Amino acid sequence: MRQKGKSAPELGQLRIIGGSHRGRKLTFPALDGVRPTPDRVRETLFNWLMPIFPGPRCLDVFCGSGALGLEALSRGAADVTFIDQSPVIASHLKTQIQLLRADNANVANADALSWLRAASPDKPWEVVFLDPPFRKELLAPALQLLVERKLLSTDAYVYIEAEAELNPLPLPTGWTLSRHKTAGQVQYALCLARQTG
Predict the structure, then answer these.
(1) Which pLDDT tens digit goes with each residue over 135-146?
(2) Are the CB atoms for 119 and 149 separated by under 8 Å?
(3) Which of 2, 13, 40, 177 has the smallest C-beta neighbourhood within 10 Å, fewest atoms?
């Protein structure tokens, strides 16, 4: 084992809570600011999304541990695209996806807003997970880019995790808040992203 140079980051652990990989434990680099969506919140979210699973195309922006996208894969997403600017996270996530033998997932190591500005998918996404670093003014521009770049299918669902004090959520025109809860310092919401124009 190498003793010199930069040591590898400590690994945290997350558990897939439903679907074909239910109970499977995966790891993620426990870097500063990386906080997997808690099991209870994930369970609530996927109960909300149950009517459209399996089958949707999913985008996990600011993916961090990848907990949301990995859960979506387990529950039958058609495909999942993960975006994160950390090369350590992106590389590790590719390894975890290989462990799941998920050939319908891909990982982009990129700044999320820059990636959204340049994105031109073959088909629009039906579910988007948005869990940006808190208090960095990233949520509103990410939401606007989803609309401006026409990256969403008609009546797509967008899941948002944000700091509890962000009120109101900066939803684009025409979007509706389908579900909303607060847990301590965090709020989470599922929005119906009706496309206009």
Answers:
(1) 999 999 999 999
(2) yes
(3) 2
Distance in Å from the first CA to the final CA of the chain: 58
8 Å CB contact between 42 and 67 = yes
Q: Tokens at residue 93, please?
A: 């996530």
pLDDT band at 109 (very low <50, low <70, confident <90, very high): very high
Confidence band of 33 (pLDDT split at 50, 70, 90): confident
Which pTM was predicted?
0.93
Contact 84, 109 (CB under 8 A): yes
Residue whose entry in the numeric block shows the structure tokens 């990256």: 151
Which tokens in the block code for residue 87? 């090369």
Are the C-beta atoms of residues 132 and 188 closer than 8 Å to each other?
A: no
CA distances from 175 to 28, 72, 89, 130 (A): 33, 23, 31, 15
